[in-house]
Amino acid sequence: MAEIPLWQSRFVVPAAAAGTFLTELDDELSVSAFEDPEQPDLWVIELIHQGEPDRQALLARLAPLAAPWRIEIDLTVGPIPSTDWLYRTVENFPPQRIGRFWIHGSHISETPPPGTVPILLDAGLAFGSGEHDSTRGCLLALDRLARRRRLKRVLDLGCGAGILAIAAAKCWPARVVAADNDPVAVAVARDNAASNGVARVRCMTSDGYGSAALRAAGPFDLILANILADPLCAMARETARNLAPSGTAVLSGLLDRQADRVLAAHRVFGLRLRKQIGDGPWVTLVLGQALQKPAQTRRSR
To answer: How far is CA 21 from CA 38, 123, 177, 196, in A?
Structure first.
């Protein structure tokens, strides 16, 4: 049987839109994004297809994703020599050291560095494999929390490939829920959790906090939400409701210019900034419940 040739398509989008395109296009053989070295505010989206893609059909699929950003997709399409595929995979996704975590693909055979927590994850199956700054920020927040606290219940909301849920399960003997509104992402997260031997990760489909099973698993000592600024703001009330009194919320998927708006939305419901990770363009916010001051007794004169 003849081997099906591989083709590549590429286009550029605003940095803030990269997550949306990665999530919506994760049914392709591979989807990846990386910063345009000449234009830091833009990201290159790269798709790998089995066989030559229908250019017009692909443009029609991309159009509704591009519309909210008011951009026109400049699509380039071309074949990939078969001998380049494995090399490209290894070159584009080398092991990453992020805090205590060592993220590596199945093509990596080297031994994890001493003292690291290895996470096996193949890039391109669903959004969130460690290469994006928003995922890095969440992993760094997890690394710092693991030094100070022992957690019992963790939620990874908008889990994508499940990297944050897996990292949490490797840090604590906690019950971890990985939830996403995309059933494909949930299936990928479930497979990745199994590959990493973390049976405590429970994967489920949920539109935000809409699942009764998700809410019943809380309140959570830690909520990880690597999504986008607008849905983070829209879910601020539910995030506060589902967070344990001494819990921590780690929010990411937002640009530095969006941080004040996201903070303001959560401050209304009693959450305060504990730490900000990253100095742009992508930032991660670590929030906690506002400290309650003891009531003062008024003295009579």
So the answer is: 21, 15, 25, 27
* pLDDT band of 114, cuts 50, 70, 90: very high
DSSP assignment of 53-76: --HHHHHHHHHHHHGGGT-----E
Residue 120 inside a domain? The answer is no
The β-bridge partners of 248 are: 222, 288
Tokens representing residue 125 in the block: 């199956």
Beta bridge partners of 120: 104
- Across the range 125-144, mean pLDDT stands at 77
Element (H, E) at 19: helix 18-24
- Helix, strand, coil percent content, the chain, rounded in steps of 5: 35, 30, 35
- Please report, as a single letter, which amino acid is at residue 142: L
Tens digit of each residue's pLDDT (9 = 90 or more) over 26-39: 677 677 777 777 78
If one counts every other C-beta atom within 10 angstroms of the C-beta of residue 301, the result is: 3
Token couple for 112: 């994890």
SS3 48: strand
281 and 196 within one domain: yes
**Rounded CA gap, 187 and 183, in Å?**
6
What CATH number should be reported for the domain holding residue 20? Answer: 3.30.70
Query: Is 279 inside a domain boundary?
Result: yes
pTM above 0.85, yes or no: no
Structural domain boundaries enclosing 41: 6-92
Residue ranges of E strands in 28-174: 30-36, 39-50, 76-80, 96-98, 101-104, 117-120, 153-157
- Looking at residue 129, the DSSP 8-state letter turns out to be S
The phi-psi region of residue 278 (left if phi > 0; otherwise alpha if psi is between -120 and 50; otherwise beta) is: left
Residue 101: partners with Cβ closer than 8 Å, 6 or more residues away? 116, 117, 118, 119, 130, 139, 142, 143, 167
